[in-house]
Design brief:
The chain is mainly beta and 407 residues long. It has two domains: 75-203, no CATH class; 221-405, Porin, CATH 2.40.160.20. The chain has helices spanning 2-18, 164-172, 177-185, 190-203; strands at residues 24-30, 36-42, 52-56, 60-64, 70-73, 77-87, 102-115, 121-125, 131-137, 140-144, 147-153, 156-162, 221-233, 237-239, 246-248, 252-264, 272-286, 290-291, 299-318, 324-346, 354-357, 365-377, 380-389, 396-405. The strands form four sheets. The protein has a ten-stranded antiparallel sheet. Helix 2 (164-172) runs antiparallel to helix 3 (177-185). The longest helix has 17 residues, at 2-18. 27% of the residues are buried. It comes from Solitalea agri.
Length: 407
């Protein structure tokens, strides 16, 4: 149990320690004279658009949007612009009734390139975690306006949504009826913005969409392989039908192998997901030997073993920032019994122990409750599972699994 506490402590604390560390990936910066310099860029905590970057070539330098034309990595390109930004609160409880958002003028910021078209599209995620889309008209990007506002009607507050971006897109793209209908129904989300420009580009004969390769926040499905170690235990004393004695079964350790699919909820920035894991599990619980008085030269013990094909369905929340991200989850487990065996072994008045079957079989289908604590790093996930099976002897499983993402 002490080792288990150490593992839990390590899983919880390592992500917060490493979140302060840098994470350099291959990239480039573009200077004002047009020179492109290749090197390494620290892409730590880019869930929000960075207001400055750390670049390492022969030496380490820091650049703001006022210092360079742009920068990029393998999957993302950013460009520096002077623009207007509509600043608002994300949480409606922080909004002030009858007060419009503040619009900052001519602020120089980085924007992430999103779509190549007649009108290029860029995106900004501000410090309040609010997304802003910009469309290029001339040399200055125009914000596609969307925000929430509290208004007072008869002394009661009501939340309203400003969707000016729909009228902007309809006018700028000179949308036909089909496109105008799509714009009217769309939400202010990255995937829907991209779909609108797919339709527009197709109608204009533009073959190249130019959207950047999907990054981690856009991938909605992960395929994983799993390997680990399980510790099985029960607090129930097993009563033998042979000698009517209660036997305490010891813990059992066994390997775990399996596969899993993680389904991320759209527009959740990979914070919310359903984890579905299928793996092979087994245990072999054995009691300590009960020694009869020495003059009988006898002992007895109980053995209980089972093999399962287990499915866990867990709803998971993952911390959205940092290179290493911790997560927690809870859900249900379902076990399909492949085989089981319970045995009483006694050597009464004999030098050779005699196994005898015990007729208490487990259910062929075993439900249970599952809890999850873990952390992710690139393609790897380290997870601690707690699975409480509801069966004849109520076996509790602790699994320490290493998962590897295939896609």
């Amino acid at each position: 149990m002490k080792r288990l506490y150490i593992i839990i402590f390590a899983i919880l604390t390592i992500p917060f320690y490493t979140s302060a560390q840098s994470n350099f990936v291959s990239g480039y910066v573009i200077k004002f004279n047009g020179d492109t310099i290749k090197g390494m860029i620290d892409n730590r905590e880019w869930n929000n658009t960075p207001n400055k970057i750390v670049f390492k070539n022969e030496s380490e330098s820091s650049y703001k949007a006022t210092d360079i034309l742009g920068f990029g990595t393998t999957n993302e390109n950013y460009k520096s612009f002077k623009l207007d930004v509509t600043l608002n609160k994300k949480n409606q409880h922080d909004l002030v009734a009858d007060q419009d958002p503040v619009v900052t003028k001519d602020t120089t910021l980085f924007l992430r390139f999103l779509v190549k078209s007649d009108y290029d599209v860029y995106v900004l995620v501000d410090k309040n975690d609010i997304t802003h889309f910009y469309i290029m008209q001339g040399k200055k990007p125009t914000e596609l306006v969307h925000f929430q506002k509290l208004i007072t009607v008869n002394q009661s507050p009501y939340l309203v949504e400003n969707n000016t971006f729909r009228d902007q897109l309809t006018e700028i793209l000179k949308a036909d009826k089909a496109l105008a209908w799509k714009i009217k129904k769309m939400g202010y989300y990255e995937d829907e913005i991209v779909n609108i420009f797919k339709h527009y580009n197709k109608s204009k004969g533009i073959n190249e969409l130019g959207k950047q390769p999907k990054n981690l926040n856009e991938r909605l499905i992960d395929y994983n392989i799993i390997a680990g170690l399980a510790n099985s235990s029960t607090s129930i004393y097993y009563t033998s039908g042979w000698d009517r004695r209660d036997y305490k079964l010891n813990n059992s350790a066994s390997p775990v192998i399996g596969a899993g699919i993680t389904l991320y909820l759209p527009r959740s920035r990979r914070q919310l997901s359903f984890d579905n894991q299928l793996f092979y599990s087994n245990y072999s619980l054995e009691s300590p030997k009960y020694a009869a008085p020495s003059y009988l030269n006898a002992y007895s013990l109980m053995k209980y073993s089972a093999q399962y094909l287990k499915m866990q369905n867990i709803f998971r929340y993952q911390y959205p920032k940092g290179l290493i991200r911790p997560y927690v989850g809870a859900g249900m487990s379902f076990g399909l019994l492949l085989s089981s065996k319970s045995t009483f072994i006694g050597s009464f008045l004999s030098t050779k122990p005699v196994p005898r079957p015990v007729g208490r079989d487990l259910k062929s289908f075993e439900p249970g409750f599952a809890f999850l604590l873990g952390t992710t790093f690139n393609r790897f996930r380290l997870e601690l599972h707690n699975d409480f099976g509801i069966n004849r002897i109520n076996v509790t499983y602790y699994q320490l699994n290493l998962c590897y993402r295939l896609n």
